[in-house]
Amino acid sequence: MDLLQIDGVAAGYGNKAVLSDLTLALRPGEVLALLGHNGAGKTTALRTIAGLLPARRGTVTLAGTRVEAMSVAQRQALGLRLLPEGRGIFPDLSVAENLDVVAAANCRGAGDLFGMADVFGLFPVLQERRGVRAGSMSGGQQQMLALSLAILGTPRCLMMDEPSIGLAPNIVARIFELVRDLCVKHAMGVLLVEQNVAAAMKIADRIVIMNNGEIVFAGRPDEARAANVWHYF
After folding, report:
1. Which of 5, 37, 84, 169 has the smallest set of CB atoms within 10 Å of its CB?
2. What is the 3-state secondary structure (H, E, C) of 119-170?
3. pLDDT (tens digit, 9 = 90+) per residue, 188-221?
4. What is the DSSP string of 15-41?
């Protein structure tokens, strides 16, 4: 069974249609990179799947459950998580306070995949800096915190919007390698929107290229290279 299914989804802002007929599927344990130029509709797709933007048409199914009529919180409780562009942290709270706020909403107990101890195990620097104001940390540390917030509890599908922006290449490589490992180990699905095409293609099992709100290519990274799709970027 596909973990996430998007069928015929249309969405937009006011009178502006951005997505017209988006259809894609994400499998458990898979990284699917959603690529394309700025304005292609990638972030709109993530916002619609997450419930931040209502779908005008179509269905969104997570692990067999239709969610397009559900609230953002209901989707999060089912394991659908979004790491937004721009870190997605509370900059004026400490690291520990950030984690406490999100844990109160997303953690249920002993059955969770990721509790506080687990994210500190993944990112020891966050435990070292648990009392530090989050907004005062480096960009890489802030992104580690943002990823920790996104996976607290039991994530099934993690959507990441431009996680490499403003980060050094070695930090990007470390975070992407960790995401790849978590995906495989826990059968999570990852939907990755990323402008760093080379970095995305290193960890993606499949890629989807969007142009003007529509999918113009879907396949493996090696198939994309052979198809010479780079004019879409």
Report:
1. 169
2. HHHHCHHHHHCCCCEHHHCCHHHHHHHHHHHHHCECCCEEEEECCCCCCCHH
3. 999 999 999 999 999 999 999 999 999 999 999 9
4. TEEEEEEEEEEE-TT-EEEEE-STTSS
The answer to whether residues 172 and 164 touch, using CB atoms and an 8 Å cutoff, is yes
Using CB atoms within 10 Å of the CB of residue 3, give its burial: 0 to 12 exposed, 13 to 18 middle, 19+ buried.
buried
Query: CA nearest 35: which of 219, 205, 208?
Result: 208
Q: What is the pTM of this model?
A: 0.94
- Beta bridge pairs of residue 215: 210
pLDDT of residue 220: 96
Tell me 229's DSSP state: -
Distance in angstroms (rounded) separating the CA atoms of residues 143 and 178: 12
